[in-house]
Amino acid sequence: MDKGRRALLRATAIAPLLPGMTNAFLAPFAHAQTVAREMVPVLGPRPFIDYFTATPIVSPLRSDAWGAAEVGSRDVGNGLEDASMAQWNYWDGQILKGQDGRYRMYASRWDQALGHSEWGKSQAVLAASDTLWGPYRDKGLMWPDDRGGLGHNVIALRMADGRFAVVVSETRNGDIFVSETADGPWRNIGSIEVDQSAFKSVKTPGDLQATSELKPWKASNVSLILRPDGAYQIIQRSGQMLLSNSGILGPYKVTGDSIYRGLVGVPQRDMRAYEDPVLWYSGGWYHVIVNHWRERRAYHMISRNGLTGWRVQGLAYEPGANFIRYSNGQVNHWNKLERPAVVMEDGHVIALTFAVIDTPKESQMGNNGHGSKIIVVPFDGAAMDRDLANADRPKAERAT
Protein backbone atom coordinates (compact mmCIF):
# COMPACT_ATOMS: atom_id res chain seq x y z
CA MET A 1 0.00 0.00 0.00
CA ASP A 2 1.49 3.40 -0.99
CA LYS A 3 2.05 6.24 1.47
CA GLY A 4 -0.78 8.37 0.04
CA ARG A 5 -3.33 5.57 0.48
CA ARG A 6 -2.15 4.91 4.05
CA ALA A 7 -2.40 8.63 4.87
CA LEU A 8 -5.91 8.77 3.42
CA LEU A 9 -7.03 5.78 5.46
CA ARG A 10 -5.53 7.22 8.66
CA ALA A 11 -7.28 10.56 8.09
CA THR A 12 -10.60 8.86 7.31
CA ALA A 13 -10.38 6.63 10.36
CA ILE A 14 -9.54 9.29 12.92
CA ALA A 15 -11.64 12.17 11.58
CA PRO A 16 -14.84 11.08 13.41
CA LEU A 17 -12.85 10.86 16.63
CA LEU A 18 -11.40 14.33 16.29
CA PRO A 19 -14.19 16.73 15.25
CA GLY A 20 -11.94 19.71 15.90
CA MET A 21 -9.33 18.53 13.41
CA THR A 22 -8.57 21.34 10.97
CA ASN A 23 -9.72 21.14 7.39
CA ALA A 24 -6.21 22.21 6.43
CA PHE A 25 -5.07 18.72 7.47
CA LEU A 26 -7.99 16.81 5.99
CA ALA A 27 -8.34 18.74 2.72
CA PRO A 28 -5.47 17.05 0.84
CA PHE A 29 -7.12 13.65 1.42
CA ALA A 30 -10.74 14.51 0.61
CA HIS A 31 -12.14 12.69 -2.43
CA ALA A 32 -8.66 11.35 -3.20
CA GLN A 33 -10.19 8.23 -4.71
CA THR A 34 -11.68 10.13 -7.66
CA VAL A 35 -9.70 13.37 -8.09
CA ALA A 36 -5.99 14.01 -7.64
CA ARG A 37 -5.71 16.51 -4.78
CA GLU A 38 -2.77 18.86 -4.82
CA MET A 39 -1.68 20.54 -1.62
CA VAL A 40 -3.10 24.08 -1.70
CA PRO A 41 -0.54 26.76 -0.76
CA VAL A 42 -1.25 28.78 2.38
CA LEU A 43 0.39 32.17 2.97
CA GLY A 44 -1.04 32.79 6.43
CA PRO A 45 -1.29 30.41 9.37
CA ARG A 46 -4.61 28.92 8.20
CA PRO A 47 -6.54 28.43 4.95
CA PHE A 48 -9.82 30.21 4.26
CA ILE A 49 -11.96 27.19 5.13
CA ASP A 50 -10.71 27.17 8.72
CA TYR A 51 -12.27 30.58 9.46
CA PHE A 52 -15.85 29.33 9.16
CA THR A 53 -17.49 29.14 12.59
CA ALA A 54 -20.49 27.32 14.05
CA THR A 55 -23.90 28.40 12.74
CA PRO A 56 -26.45 29.57 15.33
CA ILE A 57 -29.61 27.45 15.39
CA VAL A 58 -32.65 29.51 14.42
CA SER A 59 -35.27 26.74 14.58
CA PRO A 60 -35.00 23.14 15.81
CA LEU A 61 -32.99 20.93 13.46
CA ARG A 62 -35.17 18.67 11.34
CA SER A 63 -34.43 15.27 9.84
CA ASP A 64 -37.72 15.30 7.91
CA ALA A 65 -37.00 18.42 5.81
CA TRP A 66 -36.98 18.03 2.03
CA GLY A 67 -33.81 16.79 0.44
CA ALA A 68 -31.39 13.89 0.45
CA ALA A 69 -30.66 12.18 3.75
CA GLU A 70 -26.95 12.80 3.17
CA VAL A 71 -27.47 16.49 3.94
CA GLY A 72 -28.26 15.62 7.56
CA SER A 73 -30.61 17.18 10.09
CA ARG A 74 -30.83 20.87 9.30
CA ASP A 75 -32.30 24.23 10.20
CA VAL A 76 -35.01 25.28 7.74
CA GLY A 77 -34.95 28.69 9.43
CA ASN A 78 -31.42 29.38 8.19
CA GLY A 79 -31.32 31.45 5.01
CA LEU A 80 -34.05 31.36 2.37
CA GLU A 81 -36.01 28.31 1.26
CA ASP A 82 -39.39 26.95 0.33
CA ALA A 83 -39.73 24.68 3.37
CA SER A 84 -42.39 22.59 1.65
CA MET A 85 -40.52 22.46 -1.68
CA ALA A 86 -43.91 22.93 -3.31
CA GLN A 87 -43.22 26.15 -5.18
CA TRP A 88 -39.70 27.59 -5.49
CA ASN A 89 -36.08 26.76 -6.08
CA TYR A 90 -33.93 29.60 -4.73
CA TRP A 91 -30.48 30.60 -5.98
CA ASP A 92 -27.81 33.34 -5.61
CA GLY A 93 -28.39 35.21 -2.31
CA GLN A 94 -26.36 38.39 -1.70
CA ILE A 95 -27.10 39.99 1.71
CA LEU A 96 -26.96 43.70 2.52
CA LYS A 97 -28.02 45.50 5.67
CA GLY A 98 -30.75 48.10 5.21
CA GLN A 99 -30.97 51.56 6.74
CA ASP A 100 -33.33 50.14 9.37
CA GLY A 101 -30.81 47.54 10.59
CA ARG A 102 -32.70 44.61 9.04
CA TYR A 103 -31.08 42.30 6.50
CA ARG A 104 -32.07 42.04 2.83
CA MET A 105 -31.25 39.11 0.62
CA TYR A 106 -31.15 39.61 -3.15
CA ALA A 107 -31.78 36.27 -4.80
CA SER A 108 -33.42 34.47 -7.70
CA ARG A 109 -36.15 31.85 -7.85
CA TRP A 110 -37.94 29.65 -10.35
CA ASP A 111 -40.69 27.03 -10.28
CA GLN A 112 -39.29 23.92 -8.60
CA ALA A 113 -41.64 21.76 -10.71
CA LEU A 114 -39.54 22.68 -13.76
CA GLY A 115 -36.39 21.16 -12.26
CA HIS A 116 -32.98 22.70 -11.89
CA SER A 117 -32.27 22.77 -15.62
CA GLU A 118 -34.81 25.58 -16.06
CA TRP A 119 -32.75 28.10 -14.07
CA GLY A 120 -32.73 30.32 -17.15
CA LYS A 121 -36.33 31.24 -16.33
CA SER A 122 -35.42 32.55 -12.88
CA GLN A 123 -36.70 35.88 -11.58
CA ALA A 124 -34.97 38.27 -9.20
CA VAL A 125 -36.56 38.52 -5.76
CA LEU A 126 -36.04 40.40 -2.50
CA ALA A 127 -36.21 38.65 0.88
CA ALA A 128 -35.87 40.14 4.36
CA SER A 129 -35.00 39.01 7.88
CA ASP A 130 -34.63 40.57 11.31
CA THR A 131 -31.43 38.56 11.84
CA LEU A 132 -28.49 37.74 9.63
CA TRP A 133 -29.13 34.00 9.80
CA GLY A 134 -32.81 34.10 8.86
CA PRO A 135 -35.41 33.03 8.26
CA TYR A 136 -35.64 35.26 5.18
CA ARG A 137 -39.15 35.95 3.92
CA ASP A 138 -39.67 36.23 0.18
CA LYS A 139 -41.11 39.70 -0.53
CA GLY A 140 -41.67 39.09 -4.22
CA LEU A 141 -40.21 40.23 -7.53
CA MET A 142 -38.01 43.32 -7.55
CA TRP A 143 -38.94 44.52 -11.03
CA PRO A 144 -42.11 42.68 -12.09
CA ASP A 145 -42.78 45.10 -14.96
CA ASP A 146 -39.31 44.70 -16.53
CA ARG A 147 -39.22 41.51 -18.63
CA GLY A 148 -41.45 39.82 -16.09
CA GLY A 149 -38.85 40.13 -13.32
CA LEU A 150 -36.23 38.14 -15.24
CA GLY A 151 -32.97 37.93 -13.32
CA HIS A 152 -30.24 35.41 -12.48
CA ASN A 153 -26.69 35.57 -11.06
CA VAL A 154 -28.09 38.27 -8.77
CA ILE A 155 -25.57 40.35 -6.78
CA ALA A 156 -25.98 43.58 -4.81
CA LEU A 157 -23.79 46.42 -3.53
CA ARG A 158 -23.83 49.98 -2.24
CA MET A 159 -22.76 52.55 -4.80
CA ALA A 160 -20.41 55.47 -4.22
CA ASP A 161 -23.39 57.81 -3.76
CA GLY A 162 -24.99 55.51 -1.17
CA ARG A 163 -27.68 54.07 -3.42
CA PHE A 164 -28.32 50.34 -3.60
CA ALA A 165 -27.53 48.52 -6.84
CA VAL A 166 -28.53 45.04 -8.01
CA VAL A 167 -26.67 43.47 -10.94
CA VAL A 168 -27.83 40.48 -12.99
CA SER A 169 -25.90 38.49 -15.55
CA GLU A 170 -26.14 35.31 -17.65
CA THR A 171 -29.83 35.72 -18.55
CA ARG A 172 -29.40 39.50 -18.93
CA ASN A 173 -26.28 41.24 -20.16
CA GLY A 174 -25.09 42.92 -16.99
CA ASP A 175 -28.27 44.93 -16.38
CA ILE A 176 -28.09 47.20 -13.32
CA PHE A 177 -31.06 48.26 -11.20
CA VAL A 178 -30.73 51.00 -8.57
CA SER A 179 -32.79 52.24 -5.64
CA GLU A 180 -32.53 54.86 -2.92
CA THR A 181 -33.47 52.21 -0.36
CA ALA A 182 -32.72 48.54 0.22
CA ASP A 183 -36.33 47.66 -0.62
CA GLY A 184 -36.77 49.51 -3.91
CA PRO A 185 -38.49 50.64 -6.03
CA TRP A 186 -35.88 49.54 -8.58
CA ARG A 187 -35.01 51.44 -11.74
CA ASN A 188 -33.15 49.88 -14.66
CA ILE A 189 -30.32 52.29 -15.50
CA GLY A 190 -28.86 50.21 -18.33
CA SER A 191 -26.33 47.50 -19.06
CA ILE A 192 -22.62 47.30 -18.31
CA GLU A 193 -20.36 48.50 -21.12
CA VAL A 194 -16.96 46.85 -21.67
CA ASP A 195 -13.85 48.09 -23.52
CA GLN A 196 -11.96 45.21 -25.15
CA SER A 197 -9.37 47.36 -26.90
CA ALA A 198 -6.44 46.08 -24.81
CA PHE A 199 -7.57 42.51 -24.04
CA LYS A 200 -10.40 40.36 -25.32
CA SER A 201 -13.06 39.23 -22.88
CA VAL A 202 -13.30 35.44 -23.07
CA LYS A 203 -16.04 33.13 -21.81
CA THR A 204 -14.10 30.85 -19.44
CA PRO A 205 -10.57 30.60 -18.03
CA GLY A 206 -10.00 27.76 -20.50
CA ASP A 207 -10.35 30.11 -23.48
CA LEU A 208 -7.08 31.65 -24.69
CA GLN A 209 -6.52 35.21 -25.84
CA ALA A 210 -4.51 34.07 -28.87
CA THR A 211 -7.14 31.70 -30.25
CA SER A 212 -10.39 33.32 -29.10
CA GLU A 213 -12.45 35.42 -31.47
CA LEU A 214 -13.25 39.01 -30.48
CA LYS A 215 -16.98 39.04 -29.70
CA PRO A 216 -19.40 41.48 -28.07
CA TRP A 217 -19.15 41.23 -24.28
CA LYS A 218 -21.39 38.65 -22.60
CA ALA A 219 -22.06 39.02 -18.87
CA SER A 220 -21.41 35.74 -17.06
CA ASN A 221 -20.99 35.16 -13.30
CA VAL A 222 -20.31 38.86 -12.74
CA SER A 223 -19.05 39.92 -9.29
CA LEU A 224 -18.84 43.70 -8.94
CA ILE A 225 -17.43 45.85 -6.12
CA LEU A 226 -16.79 49.49 -5.33
CA ARG A 227 -13.06 49.75 -4.62
CA PRO A 228 -11.63 51.90 -1.80
CA ASP A 229 -10.19 54.23 -4.47
CA GLY A 230 -13.67 54.91 -5.90
CA ALA A 231 -13.34 52.78 -9.03
CA TYR A 232 -15.69 49.90 -9.81
CA GLN A 233 -14.19 46.49 -10.47
CA ILE A 234 -15.60 43.29 -11.95
CA ILE A 235 -14.36 39.75 -11.96
CA GLN A 236 -16.25 37.57 -14.42
CA ARG A 237 -16.40 33.83 -15.02
CA SER A 238 -13.20 33.88 -17.09
CA GLY A 239 -11.22 35.18 -14.12
CA GLN A 240 -10.48 38.42 -15.96
CA MET A 241 -10.55 41.73 -14.10
CA LEU A 242 -12.47 44.68 -15.54
CA LEU A 243 -12.03 48.21 -14.19
CA SER A 244 -14.15 51.36 -14.54
CA ASN A 245 -13.20 54.87 -13.45
CA SER A 246 -16.36 56.23 -15.06
CA GLY A 247 -19.11 54.90 -12.83
CA ILE A 248 -20.94 51.65 -12.29
CA LEU A 249 -22.05 51.24 -15.93
CA GLY A 250 -18.51 51.71 -17.24
CA PRO A 251 -17.00 51.46 -19.70
CA TYR A 252 -14.95 48.78 -17.95
CA LYS A 253 -11.54 48.11 -19.41
CA VAL A 254 -10.47 44.47 -19.61
CA THR A 255 -7.15 44.64 -17.75
CA GLY A 256 -5.58 41.31 -18.70
CA ASP A 257 -5.86 37.57 -19.00
CA SER A 258 -7.45 35.27 -16.41
CA ILE A 259 -5.82 35.65 -13.00
CA TYR A 260 -5.97 31.86 -12.59
CA ARG A 261 -3.73 31.10 -15.55
CA GLY A 262 -0.34 29.82 -14.42
CA LEU A 263 -1.11 30.62 -10.77
CA VAL A 264 0.67 28.21 -8.44
CA GLY A 265 -1.90 26.35 -6.37
CA VAL A 266 -4.77 26.65 -8.88
CA PRO A 267 -5.03 23.45 -10.97
CA GLN A 268 -4.59 24.23 -14.65
CA ARG A 269 -6.59 21.25 -15.92
CA ASP A 270 -10.17 21.50 -17.16
CA MET A 271 -10.13 25.29 -16.71
CA ARG A 272 -13.50 25.75 -18.36
CA ALA A 273 -15.00 24.31 -15.16
CA TYR A 274 -14.02 27.32 -13.03
CA GLU A 275 -17.04 29.48 -12.23
CA ASP A 276 -18.81 31.69 -9.69
CA PRO A 277 -15.89 33.92 -8.66
CA VAL A 278 -16.59 36.41 -5.89
CA LEU A 279 -14.45 39.53 -5.30
CA TRP A 280 -14.12 41.72 -2.21
CA TYR A 281 -11.68 43.95 -0.32
CA SER A 282 -10.77 43.56 3.36
CA GLY A 283 -7.73 43.80 5.59
CA GLY A 284 -5.60 45.56 2.99
CA TRP A 285 -6.08 42.77 0.43
CA TYR A 286 -8.36 42.12 -2.51
CA HIS A 287 -9.77 38.62 -2.25
CA VAL A 288 -11.20 36.18 -4.79
CA ILE A 289 -12.85 32.81 -4.28
CA VAL A 290 -13.46 30.64 -7.34
CA ASN A 291 -15.09 27.23 -7.57
CA HIS A 292 -14.06 24.35 -9.84
CA TRP A 293 -17.47 22.73 -10.22
CA ARG A 294 -16.28 19.48 -11.73
CA GLU A 295 -13.66 18.81 -9.05
CA ARG A 296 -16.02 20.20 -6.39
CA ARG A 297 -13.39 22.41 -4.80
CA ALA A 298 -12.98 26.18 -4.38
CA TYR A 299 -9.80 28.23 -3.99
CA HIS A 300 -8.98 31.49 -2.21
CA MET A 301 -6.47 34.00 -3.60
CA ILE A 302 -5.32 37.47 -2.58
CA SER A 303 -3.70 40.53 -4.18
CA ARG A 304 -2.63 43.91 -2.82
CA ASN A 305 -3.88 45.94 -5.79
CA GLY A 306 -6.67 43.68 -7.03
CA LEU A 307 -5.28 43.44 -10.55
CA THR A 308 -1.88 41.79 -10.42
CA GLY A 309 0.31 39.79 -8.06
CA TRP A 310 -2.37 37.24 -7.16
CA ARG A 311 -1.31 34.47 -4.77
CA VAL A 312 -3.24 31.42 -3.56
CA GLN A 313 -4.19 31.46 0.13
CA GLY A 314 -5.54 27.98 0.69
CA LEU A 315 -8.66 25.92 0.20
CA ALA A 316 -11.84 28.01 0.31
CA TYR A 317 -14.39 25.22 0.74
CA GLU A 318 -15.55 21.86 -0.61
CA PRO A 319 -18.77 19.89 -0.09
CA GLY A 320 -17.07 16.95 1.65
CA ALA A 321 -15.49 19.06 4.41
CA ASN A 322 -17.15 19.46 7.82
CA PHE A 323 -17.28 23.27 7.75
CA ILE A 324 -21.07 23.75 7.69
CA ARG A 325 -21.78 22.90 11.31
CA TYR A 326 -24.20 24.07 13.97
CA SER A 327 -23.51 25.16 17.52
CA ASN A 328 -24.56 21.69 18.74
CA GLY A 329 -22.01 19.92 16.52
CA GLN A 330 -24.39 18.72 13.78
CA VAL A 331 -22.82 18.91 10.31
CA ASN A 332 -24.51 19.38 6.94
CA HIS A 333 -23.13 18.10 3.63
CA TRP A 334 -24.89 19.59 0.60
CA ASN A 335 -24.16 18.01 -2.78
CA LYS A 336 -23.46 21.37 -4.41
CA LEU A 337 -22.22 24.66 -2.95
CA GLU A 338 -22.40 27.42 -5.54
CA ARG A 339 -22.83 31.17 -5.98
CA PRO A 340 -20.87 32.21 -2.86
CA ALA A 341 -21.30 35.79 -1.66
CA VAL A 342 -19.74 37.60 1.30
CA VAL A 343 -21.53 39.57 4.00
CA MET A 344 -19.43 42.51 5.18
CA GLU A 345 -19.66 44.49 8.40
CA ASP A 346 -17.09 46.93 9.81
CA GLY A 347 -14.76 46.12 6.93
CA HIS A 348 -14.61 42.35 7.53
CA VAL A 349 -16.44 39.29 6.24
CA ILE A 350 -18.87 38.05 8.91
CA ALA A 351 -20.64 35.37 6.87
CA LEU A 352 -20.90 33.75 3.47
CA THR A 353 -24.02 32.73 1.63
CA PHE A 354 -24.20 29.73 -0.69
CA ALA A 355 -26.82 28.49 -3.11
CA VAL A 356 -27.03 24.80 -2.23
CA ILE A 357 -28.68 21.77 -3.78
CA ASP A 358 -29.10 18.40 -2.10
CA THR A 359 -28.48 16.21 -5.17
CA PRO A 360 -26.64 16.42 -8.49
CA LYS A 361 -28.40 19.05 -10.57
CA GLU A 362 -29.64 16.57 -13.13
CA SER A 363 -31.42 14.65 -10.34
CA GLN A 364 -33.51 17.68 -9.36
CA MET A 365 -36.19 17.19 -11.99
CA GLY A 366 -39.06 18.84 -10.16
CA ASN A 367 -41.73 17.54 -7.81
CA ASN A 368 -39.38 14.85 -6.50
CA GLY A 369 -38.51 16.15 -3.03
CA HIS A 370 -35.21 17.71 -4.09
CA GLY A 371 -34.40 21.36 -4.62
CA SER A 372 -32.19 24.31 -3.81
CA LYS A 373 -32.05 27.02 -1.15
CA ILE A 374 -29.68 29.68 0.18
CA ILE A 375 -27.77 29.15 3.40
CA VAL A 376 -25.90 31.63 5.62
CA VAL A 377 -22.66 30.40 7.22
CA PRO A 378 -20.77 32.52 9.81
CA PHE A 379 -17.14 33.43 9.16
CA ASP A 380 -14.45 35.07 11.29
CA GLY A 381 -13.15 37.54 8.73
CA ALA A 382 -11.62 39.81 11.37
CA ALA A 383 -9.33 36.97 12.47
CA MET A 384 -8.45 36.14 8.87
CA ASP A 385 -7.59 39.77 8.11
CA ARG A 386 -5.35 39.95 11.20
CA ASP A 387 -3.59 36.75 10.18
CA LEU A 388 -3.02 37.97 6.61
CA ALA A 389 -1.98 41.53 7.47
CA ASN A 390 1.71 40.80 6.81
CA ALA A 391 1.38 37.65 4.72
CA ASP A 392 3.48 39.13 1.92
CA ARG A 393 6.40 39.87 4.22
CA PRO A 394 9.18 37.32 4.81
CA LYS A 395 8.22 34.93 7.61
CA ALA A 396 11.09 36.13 9.78
CA GLU A 397 9.63 39.67 9.72
CA ARG A 398 5.95 38.87 10.36
CA ALA A 399 6.23 38.76 14.14
CA THR A 400 7.97 42.12 14.32
Tags for this entry?
single chain; mainly beta; four-stranded antiparallel sheet
Question: Topology of this protein?
Answer:
Blueprint: H1 3-14, H2 23-26, E1 88-97, E2 103-111, E3 123-129, E4 137-141, E5 155-158, E6 164-168, E7 175-179, E8 187-191, E9 194-195, E10 223-226, E11 232-235, E12 241-244, E13 252-254, E14 274-282, E15 285-292, E16 297-303, E17 311-317, E18 336-345, E19 348-357, E20 372-378, H3 381-388
Parallel strand pairs: 9-13
Antiparallel strand pairs: 1-2, 2-3, 3-4, 5-6, 6-7, 7-8, 10-11, 11-12, 12-13, 14-15, 15-16, 16-17, 18-19, 19-20
Low-confidence stretches: 1-35
Distance between the termini: 45 Å
Could you state the order of secondary-structure elements as H and E?
HHEEEEEEEEEEEEEEEEEEEEH
List the total number of helices.
3
Number of strands: 20
Biggest β-sheet, characterized? 5 strands, mixed
Structural class: mainly beta
Q: Characterize the overall form.
A: globular
User: On the 0-100 scale, what is the average pLDDT?
Assistant: 91
| Rg, nearest Å | 20 Å
Which range does the strand content fall in?
A: 25-35%
Query: What topology, given as strand order, has the largest sheet?
Result: 9-13-12-11-10
